[in-house]
Structure formats: structure tokens, C-alpha cells
Amino acid sequence: MISIQNLYKTYGKQEVLSGVNLEVKAGEFVALVGLSGSGKSLLLRHIVRLVKPDSGTVLVDGRDVNQMPHKELEALRSRVGYVFQNGALFDSETVYDNVAFPLREKTRMSETEIRKRVMTELDLVGLTEAVDKFPAQLSGGMLKRAALARTLVRAPEIILFDEPTTGLDPMVVNSILNLFDSAHRRLNLTGILVSHEIPEIFGIVQKVAMLHEGKIVAEETPETLRTSPAPIIDQFVNGNIEGPIRLR
Amino acid sequence: MIARFSQLGRWFIGQLSSLGECTFFLVESVAVCFAPPIKWNRVIKQIWFIGWKSMPVICLTGAFTGMVLALQGYHSLRQLGSEAFLGPLVALSLLRELGPVLAALMVTGRAGSSITAQLGIMRINDQIDALELMGLNPVRYLVVPNLIALVVAMPLLSAVFNVVAIFGGYLLGVRVQGLNAGVYFGEMHNYVVFQDVLNSTYKAACFGLLIAWVCCYKGFKSRFGAEGVSTATTQAVVNASVLILVLDYLLSALIIK
């Protein structure tokens, strides 16, 4: 479904992505891991053409995202849900209005139908009590759950999570990962999850890809990765200070 | 030497590219204004924010501008024995130049900076990207309402500025300096023509478009966290203010021709 081939991206003199290759099959949930600043979020942004590569291709259903005309790109984007690291909720709107926003703007649904859909999604993420709150009044965990509700209300086919659990306490991390897992099963989503939550994410994904020095150095099942003898993977998965990876 | 030329060339190409990007942003924004749907609720909200909430500062600066014009004008005209022309002096200075220009500068400082900061924060918090990923055009939601609101509100604010300033001039010239009220307004009536009022309105509308263009563009292109937003806001206010004065000269030259 998603195929990234030989992707290169340079900022100034720094080559962030140096020939990335990654395949994600339909219905597959893949975790993308790697050091901070290794280009994981940047790679995710290429899939929806928020960033254009220097070279290489990003194919979604066999179509090159970077060659798509505007209308086709818009159609692709409406099939993709993207949960940003900071939620990216609209500050001036309440939680309810944030979740209702894509339905009001992109569908012809009546306000009654919208209310029903929004309340169902908010119930699933446990935010029915916070409908009238503004993003600034929410905790970190609530913010991420509201962002997930806004993404899922559009019933996307592909979902991209950009570090949705960073900076949250372990209980909230697990609750959010459970929400992702149940959404993935319920909607049969294809997804990529950028995360540092190892080993928590291993239980909900089918494959883990590790991005290191601009390349995918491992693309394995969680079980294989966990027991991998490769020094780079072993050091990263177990969080060892000593090893071939040098902290920047 | 070659390295210097190469550096200069890169700088020049960079500037040219920025100018092109900036022009394309204006063209796209204006084009979207003529391609419905327009988000009228957002337009009304912005007219309220830009127009109504700028009224106190417009009235205050207008009153003092009129008073200082009358003060300086009265003493200069008295040396020539022409105090009777204080009314036309105040009114024509305001309608032809000071009213639209000063009102635009005030709106740039009060509302333009706020627009840039708001869009800049939306940019760095990925809210603009989120709009794009919903398949929506951010220009339609964030730029067009500001553009329409500024083009509508600026002539009204400029008119309020002119009226308050003429009244300020009246207070100083008539109430303080003792000029006859009939002379102040009567001579004004003889010298000010309706075309002056129209030109003032056109100028103000052009300034509204300019403020929307510069401030929205700078907000949209904000980068690198809080410092980036702060830099964009400063640049927006400085660039818009300078461009208002340049555009004022060009429009005046065009009108006088």
C-alpha cells in the first residue's frame, strides 16, 4: 500500500534521509523507531507530501505522491489521518468543534449526524466530559486523545502517528497505545507509528522499522527485533549507552 | 573573488525566489476571494477584531493628530494672516495623506502584528499542516477572511480617523485659539471636494490589502519556534509600515497625475 523507495532529503549540508526504503502492506501497522533527530517525522511527512524529497519516490497504492496533481493529492490526503506530535488542535475551537471541524467542512452531514459521530468518537477516547474545553485547558494525554478522535472521525484508511505518546506518563502511554490498537483492529487501518516507547509498542504493531543515519537498518517483526544480535539494534532496543551508536 | 560573486548570486536568487513566492501568495489569496465558498462567519469575526477593536486607538490617535495639525497650522497661517484656511489645511492634509496612512500604521501595529503572531503559532504547531491534511485550503480559512476584513475595515477606520481628527482640529482651532466655527467648516466646504474623500477611501482599501498580504505571508512562513514567530511579527510590522509609506507615495503620484 505504501512503498518508499530510495528516498533522499538534505537540509543545508546535512543529509537527513540517505536512501530510505520501506514497504507497508494494506492493513499492516508498522512502528518506525530511531534516535531523536534521525528523520522519522520527516519521513512521515513525505508520505502526504508535506515535504518533497530531493530524490526517490513515495508510492501510495502504486501512485507517486510527488507526481500527483492537486486534486488527486487532496483525495489521498482525505484518506489519510495524521496525528501530529503536539496534537495540532485548533486553539480557538473547543474539543467538540475541533472533532466536528472536518465533518462540517468536508461532508454534507447534518448537525445532528455530526453530533452523533463526534460524541461516539469522543466516547471511544474517553473525552465526553471535555467537549466544551479548549485545547489550552487539556492535559497532554487528553490533547493526544482529542487529536486521535479528530483523526478517526473522518474514518481514514491510512493513519500516521507522529510520536503521539512522547512526554506522557506510562499509564497514559499505555491507554493511548490501546486506543491505537483498538482503532487499528476496528477500522482495519494501515498505519505507521513513530515512537520511542520501546517495548510498549511491540505489542500492537506487526513490524518495526529502525531508521539510523538516514537509512532503514532493520525491518523486522517485534519478536525478531527484540532478540536481534545486531549490535546497533541490540543497543537501541535495550537502551545501552555503550555500543556502536554514538549519542549526538 | 569567484566565491564572493557566487555568494552574491545565491543571495540574489534567494531574494528573487522570495519575491516570487510572496507575489504568488498574493495572487492565490486574491483568486480564492473570487472562488466561493467564502467563510463569512470568519470574515465577520475578523471585521469585528480588526475594525471594531481598533476603534479606541484610531480615535485617540486621530484626535491628537487633528489637534497637533491645527496647532502647527494655526501658528503658521497666522504669520501669513490666513488663519481662515485652517479648516481646509486640516481636512485636506488628513483626507489626502495623514488619515489613511496613520490609520493604516495603527492597524498594522495593533491587528497586523496579531494576525502574523496567530498564523505563525498555527504554523509552528502544525495547525496549518493539519488543515492541509484534511484536504482544505489554509488560504481560504486563514488568509481570505483577514484580507476581506482588512479591505472592508480599513476605509471605515480611515474615515473615522479623519472625522475624529477634523473634530480635534476644531477643538484646538475654534475652542482654544478662538477661530470662528463657521469659518473653520465653511472654508473646508469650499476647498474639499468629494474626490478627496473617494481617494482617501481607495488609498485605505489598498493599505488594507497590503497589510493583509504582508502580515499573513509572514505568519504563514514563520519557522523555528517562538523566536521564529517573534522575528516574523517584527518583520511583518516593519515591512508593512515601510511599504505603506512607499505605496502612499505611488498612489499620491498617480492621483495627482
Q: In angstroms, what separates the terminal alpha carbons of chain B?
A: 47 Å
The number of distinct β-strands of chain A equals 10
Report the order of strands and helices of chain A. Answer: EEEHEEHEHHHEHEEEHH
Q: What are the low-pLDDT stretches of chain B, counting only 5+ consecutive residues below 50?
A: none
C-alpha Rg of chain B (nearest Å): 21 Å
CATH topology of the domain at 2-88 and 157-238 in chain A: Rossmann fold
Tally the helices of chain B: 9
Percent strand of chain A: 15-25%
Inertia-based shape of chain A: globular
CATH architecture of the domain at 2-88 and 157-238 in chain A: 3-Layer(aba) Sandwich
Largest sheet of chain A: 6 strands, mixed
Radius of gyration of chain A: 18 Å
Distance N to C terminus of chain A: 34 Å
CATH uppermost class of the domain at 2-88 and 157-238 in chain A: Alpha Beta
The total of beta strands of chain B comes to: 0
Q: Topology of this structure?
A:
The complex is a heterodimer of chains A (248) and B (257).
Chain A: E1 2-11, E2 14-24, E3 29-34, H1 40-47, E4 55-60, E5 63-64, H2 70-79, E6 80-83, H3 95-106, H4 111-124, H5 140-152, E7 158-162, H6 170-187, E8 190-194, E9 207-212, E10 215-220, H7 222-226, H8 231-238
Parallel strand pairs in A: 3-8, 3-9, 6-7, 7-8
Antiparallel strand pairs in A: 1-2, 1-4, 4-5, 9-10
Helix pairs in contact in A: 3-4, 3-5, 4-5, 5-6
Chain B: H1 2-33, H2 40-50, H3 55-79, H4 86-124, H5 127-133, H6 138-176, H7 181-191, H8 194-220, H9 225-256
Helix pairs in contact in B: 1-6, 2-6, 3-4, 3-6, 4-6, 4-7, 4-8, 4-9, 6-8, 8-9
